[in-house]
Amino acid sequence: MTAATTGPSPSAPSPSAPPAPAPLLTAAARERILSLEGTDLPAYVYDLTALRAHAAEVRAALPAGVELYYAAKANPEAEILAALGPYVDGYEVSSGGELAHVGKAVPGRPLAFGGPGKTPAEVTAALEQGVRRFHVESLHDLHVLAALAERRPRREGEPRVGVLLRFNLPLADASLAGSSLAMGGRPTPFGLDPADANTAVRLLTDGGHPHLELLGVHAHLASGLEAPELLASAESIVAWSTDLAARHRVRLAEVNVGGGMHVSYAEPARRFDWQTYGAGLGRLAAAHPGLTLRIEPGRALTAYCGWYATEVLDVKDSHGEAFAVVRGGTHHLRTPATKGHDQPCTVLPVEAWPHPWPRPSTHRPESTLTGQLCTPKDLLARHVPAPGLRAADRVAFALAGAYAWNISHHDFLMHPHPTHHFVG
Ligand SMILES: Cc1ncc(COP(=O)(O)O)c(C=O)c1O
Questions:
Q1: Which of 34, 91, 330, 383 has its CA 20 to 30 A from that of 138?
Q2: Separation of 377 CA from ligand 1 center, angstroms?
Q3: pLDDT at 9 exceeding the cut of 60
């Protein structure tokens, strides 16, 4: 059989053709996946050279003054955090666990601590670790931070603790329609309600909390938006924030417009339009001199650099359709189950078959790839064009570099965990 892939196959470049789309599987990742022992599978394989090249492109598309923080929740592997180091201004962390881990993986780099429901222990740890930028999600969150910051002795010349008030701002309905995950513009537990804005600003500016400094506003409103919608959202966040600052006669130093750049699992070669987004952010920054704009993407930075690689254990027909059961499943790669999509993949044929009995295979042109879990929800990819798929062939599921291993329910059914590999 021949290698099958659900994404575009690379073709020979011609001088007038636009640049070839990024391949669904890089040569380095393919080589590593094929060189792994069967006992190493399933495996997460990350191509750090591909990650660096992509991050460099993203950075180059952003205007010089726009800051880029990586949302560590997308993939906190230490090697990933370190590889992104030269291209990012800092990292956004959302728990005490991320705070400790990221602080160790990329020591000395700026961290912004956000997330709803921060505990006093987590806030104390962040203050002790030297975090000076907090995304405050409620009036209570603000009071906790103020009380803990005031309890710490402040050395002469030490900067105050910076606060960005995270707001759940209204978003145009058209923007929300395209979003796969809306965190703002509708009732959610994220950020302060705009109705609390005046109270929050007064608490930070009436002299009652001298250890805190209001730096600005944070708003991560939705995930999965294309560049025009995300730009419109950034423009409305900045307009709302400048208006708030003007009403209170305070300086607005920073606005963080969040992450949420679209990643297409159906068309993996179509990537977020960073050029358009960067140019729009440049216009926005130019219209607000003295204001630092910041973004904090996760998925669109790291999704493309990771693969979940495994092997076909069994192939069978069921009621007229072919199913291939692979080693592992959605307890290792939960993304297709949570988002309800088919994970793009590449089949890597393996010729060796060590058993004396017939090798399970399909005569059908396509197979549905499932995992080992005892639930019909354990679907990795439906109707994959893979004629002649056989047991022992390998499969590399792409776009597994973000919200993949770290969001999965690893121990359901107690299968062994995947091995992890970094190439490049
Ligand atoms: C506060 C915050 N910032 C940034 C992100 C990153 O979003 P994305 O991975 O969609 O870019 C998230 C994701 O949930 C988030 O909650």
A1: 91
A2: 26
A3: no
Q: Which of 263, 297, 331 lies at the terminal end of a domain, its last residue?
A: 297
Is the same domain home to 288 and 380? no
Domain harbouring 251, CATH code: 3.20.20.10
Answer yes or no: do 101 and 187 share one domain. yes
Residue 249, exposed/middle/buried by CB under 10 A (0-12, 13-18, 19+)? exposed
Residue nearest to atom 5 of ligand 1 (CA): 259
Domain membership flag for residue 138: yes
Ligand 1 atom at shortest distance from the alpha carbon of 261: 11
The atom of ligand 1 lying closest to the CA of 218 is: 1
**Per DSSP, what are the bridge partners of residue 324?**
315, 369
The residue to mutate among 113, 135, 220, having the most atoms of ligand 1 within 8 angstroms of its beta carbon, is 220
Query: From the CB of 303, is ligand 1 less than 6 Å away?
Result: no
Q: pLDDT at position 185, please?
A: 75
Same domain, 241 and 388: no
Does residue 141 sit in the same domain as residue 251? yes
Query: Is residue 345 annotated as part of the catalytic site, yes or no?
Result: no
Please pick, among 374, 376, 411, 414, the residue that the annotation labels catalytic: 374
pLDDT score recorded for residue 181 = 67
Tokens of 66: 């726009």
Q: Is the CB of 74 under 6 A from ligand 1?
A: yes
- Domain final residue pick, 235, 262, 297: 297
Ligand 1 pocket residue status of 418, Cβ below 6 Å: no
Pair (221, 266) in one structural domain: yes
**What total of structural domains would you count in the chain?**
2
Location of structure tokens 């007064």: 202
CA distance 106 to 308: 25
Distance from C-alpha of 270 to C-alpha of 263, rounded to nearest angstrom: 8
Mutate to test the pocket of ligand 1, among 296, 304, 305, 338 (most ligand atoms within 8 A of CB): 296
* CA 24 and chain centroid, separation: 18
How far is Cα 211 from Cα 135, in angstroms, rounded to an integer? 16
Q: In sequence order, what are the beta bridge partners of 93?
A: 113
- Among the listed residues 60, 67, 61, 68, the one whose alpha carbon sits nearest the alpha carbon of residue 275: 61
